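Predicting structure from sequence has reshaped protein science. With that in mind, we have picked out one protein's residues alongside their backbone shape tokens:
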Amino acid sequence: MATVVKLHVFPESLNQHKTRLLRRGFGSCPSPGVLGFGHKNYDQFSVKVCRAFRTEDGGDVKEKKFRNLKKNEEKTKRESGFWSSLKSILLRNFMVGSKSDDEYRQAVVKVEGLLSSIAIQIGRYIVTMMSTGVILSIGFQMSGGDSQMDALIWYSWLGGVIIGTMIGANMVLEEHCRAGPRNVVITGSTRGLGKALAREFLLSGDRVIVTSRSPESVQDTIKELEENLKEGIANAVGSSLTKLSQAKVIGISCDVCEPHDVQRLANFAVKELGHIDIWINNAGTNKGFRPLLQFSDEDIKQIVSTNLVGSILCTREAVRIMRNQANAGHIFNMDGAGSGGSSTPLTAVYGSTKCGLRQLQGSLLKECKRSKVGVHTASPGMVLTDLLLSGSTVQNRQMFNIICELPETVARTLVPRMRVVKGTGKAINYLTPPRILLALITAWLRQGRWFDDQGRALYAAEADRLRNWAEDRARFSFTDAMEMYTENTWLSVFSLSVVCAFIILSSTGSNLPGT
């Protein structure tokens, strides 16, 4: 049986490369053709580009591919109408000379993001003009044609626009700072608040290093966070998809009480990330609520070593790295009960370590004053973690119903502020005075929020919480609706509202009883 040898040549590759000398005795042939041989000894052959090639069924590969592309394009236009036609026109401009599917998809995402951004800006402009127009109309009607009042309204509107523009410019700068991915190191980040912080940084498009004493915990946390990232990427579009595509999570085991481990962590971070933008000393421990006499020597040693010595060692390594890198870096030490010097009965050892960290903060502010290193504190308040619940009584847990929050809630508030921190000596707190006041006012409504009368937990498991948490992130909230207004609009509305209130009081003041 005869053997037939088939030679498949792709024209695209031949367009980019000239025929080369392949082996001894081979050369190029000036005559046209697909496969040309030289003289009678067949010492030479050349490969030339032809118009088309036939498939095994006699079809033309190039023509078939062209017909299929045309057919798909016509089908897409019929399905999507004007929007698809507009996208196709823009793609022709963006996709000059590009043929790969990956480049095509990237261009589609780029165009969709551009069009979405334009639509949002137009929508904001329309909302701004409509809002200010309505307020101005109301103000002019209330003024009753008084020229002085009309001038006051115009000046108030102009002042609001100017102030809003200044605030808006600052927010644009902060947004610019927020845009790029951050390189983040978080100690004690395989559970509780540390893991919640790592997850929030990761879903903000950052590159995160998680650590723990246990290598198994590190690997389990990495797998879990990678699943969270995949879910986020699957639900993201446009610029959010581009942002998440840069995120990654890696980890290494580290005992912050051991100087060698901390140095290994710092070197690992530089090797994997290049530089460090944010270092968070979150590793901490407590041994329950009880008098000092009931703490063993090992308990005291472990609390002080982890909370105070560990934070000092990590801060030293972070400062060493950040001083030698081109980018500015920021270090966060976690505040806790006793940070301000107040007494902490039943947690005396824990409180003393946190007070020591506050003294460390003050000293480092002066040592790093003229460097690019920012030293800050972050106060999460009371978070429902194993650290807080260890050794807690039923009475403690009833109090937790009023003032405590879940790790995901706290992380979602702290991380955006950590990412855009500037300078040094900043204090980023979750439990602010307004939140404390609100918690006290609504204390009777918070009974049984996390624990029942017997101290049994009522809140959902972490997996269920994360599912609801992901849905809350995707939901369009009232806060998101407020952000649709530009800063100029809000200040203009506020300024004009004050003027309108003044006009109303002025016009009705003489008719009020007792005036």
Remarks:
- Residues 32 and 48 are 7 Å apart (CA to CA).
- The first strand starts at residue 35 and ends at 37.
- Residues 1-50 form one domain.
